[in-house]
Amino acid sequence: LQTIRLFLRGVRVAKRLLREFRPDVVLGTGGYVAGPVLVAAHRLNIPVAIHEQNVIPGLTNRFLSRYASLIAVSFPGSDRYFPPEKTQLVGNPRASEVVQADPQKGWALLSKPPGTKLVLIVGGSRGAEPINAAFLAMMPRLAAFPDVHFVYVSGQVHYERISQRAEEQLARCPDVRRQLTVLPFLDEMPEVLAASTLVISRAGATMLSELTALGLPAILIPSPYVTNNHQEKNALWLTESGAALMIRERELTGERLFAELKQLLERPQRLTEMAQAAKSLGRPDACRQLCRALADLARR
Q: What is the DSSP string of 20-52?
């Protein structure tokens, strides 16, 4: 009952703001906070568009699809959840940014020669404790790949503790030190992604868009703590497409992560096939496509 009351209040407030701002189009990207705004726009006869970033649409976008004149989806197959007459496959605008990144800058940032094999490990902007624990457990075994450099982004929250534990590990295996860069955060993520050979990460919508735009193979560890478990559905889609491997968090250990990493790094042909599969799913022109679709909607 409280949710209904807050929703109706949100619609009233959004109507007032929309009358002041007078937009040509209102675009929602999912999440419950978009609901009142798009419903208010519809009632004011302002064209409504939604952009679905995940493989399996969330509840909010499914609900709002009845009010939308344009439904933009990021991945092939997502369109089956929406009315076909108003659904377009455009991709995620984030993909358009990473395809312009210069891999040479990524190698230079890490002080590595161009062409160096990079494995990027990242758990999101705040990091992910299970990924941190698994990576620390397998760190002594990285010497098995002397020609690979590992870039480990721990997240700002975890960095001090993780870097201390990494130093303890490196004291016992000094040969690994030259193969490893540990960072709290990476502002130049597009450049390092562009230079990477393999990525180990969560399975958020933005990361999937970047991986497919660049054609990067990945080991995905979806977060189980997100609404509608959409990260696992994202990861499963990429895995079934042949572009990634998935490890559920409850199955994640240092031993398992090392085994998956080893079988990929020792089989270059498999990495190439995964990269090609990822590239075939990418939409590098997503930003232009979405802007064009919104402009067309505004002119109707």
A: HH--S-EEE-SSTTHHHHHHHHHHTT--EEEEE
* Per-residue pLDDT tens digits of the chain, which is 300 residues long: 998 999 999 999 999 999 999 999 999 998 889 999 999 999 999 999 999 999 999 888 999 999 999 999 999 889 999 999 999 999 999 898 899 999 999 999 999 999 999 999 998 666 688 898 899 999 999 999 999 999 999 888 778 888 888 888 888 888 888 999 999 888 899 999 999 999 999 999 999 999 999 999 999 999 988 877 889 999 999 999 999 999 999 999 999 999 999 999 999 999 999 999 999 999 999 999 999 999 999 998
Please name the amino acid found at residue 295. A
Q: What is the pTM of this model?
A: 0.89
Supply 252's token pair.
């994640």
Strand stretches in the chain, DSSP E: 26-28, 48-52, 70-73, 87-89, 117-122, 148-153, 180-183, 198-201, 218-220, 244-246
Determine contact, residues 118/217, Cβ cutoff 8 Å: no
Judging by DSSP bridges, how do beta strands 117-122 and 148-153 pair with one another? parallel
Contacts of 21 (CB under 8 A, 6+ apart): none
Here the tokens at position 14 are: 């959004």
Q: Provide Rg for the chain, Cα atoms.
A: 21
Residue 53 three-state SS? coil
| Closest CA relative to residue 101, chosen from 181, 184, 188 | 188
Cβ atoms of residues 204 and 211 within 8 Å: no
Helix (H, G, I), strand (E, B) or coil at 123: coil
